[in-house]
Amino acid sequence: MKIALGADHGGYRLKDKIAAHLSENGHEVVDFGTNSPESCDYPDFADPVCRAVAGGECDFGILVCSTGIGMSMAANKHAGIRAACCSETVSVALTRAHNNANVLALGEFIVGEHVACEMADIFIGTPFSEGERHIRRINKVMELEKNTSDIG
Q1: Catalytic residues
Q2: Cα–Cα dist 29/124, whole Å
Q3: Using CB atoms within 10 A of its CB, is residue 112 exposed (0-12), middle (13-18) or buried (19+)?
Q4: Which has the closest alpha carbon to 62: 40, 77, 45, 79?
Q5: Torsion angle defined by CA atoms of residues 126, 132, 138 and 143, in that order, rounded to the nearest 10 degrees
Q6: pTM passes above 0.90
Q7: pLDDT at 149 over 80
C-alpha cells in the first residue's frame, strides 16, 4: 500500500517512527513533512496528505500533531476525506470497519511509539466491511460536504 504521512513540529518524531515501521513492512511511504522541531502549522501538512488520499495517489493518510485533534479538524475540511483522531486500537479498527475512514490522526503527546505503529497496522489492514447500514450513514456524511459548501 501507498501511505501518505504528515506532521507538524509536535508530531514529526512519531511520524518518522511510523514511516520507518511501515517501510520495514513493505509499504510505500510518501512523507509530506515536517522533519524538524521548528514551529510550523499543521494545516500546511494535512493539506497535501489529504489531497493525495482524496486524489487516489495514496491509499491512506496518517497525520500526527501533539494531540491529533488539529490534524483531524484540518483533514476533515477536505472533500472525500473521513479522518478519525484515535488514541487506542479499538477505535482505529472500528473507524475503518464502520466509517471507512481514510485518514488517521494521532497525537505524539498521547500515543506511544509502539502503540502508534500497531494502530497504523490496524488502520491500513482493517477493511470496511460492515455493510449497508454503515454505507447509508457514510453517504449521508459525504452529502454534508455538498449541502454545506455554500455556508460561509
Answers
A1: 65, 98
A2: 12
A3: exposed
A4: 45
A5: 150
A6: yes
A7: no
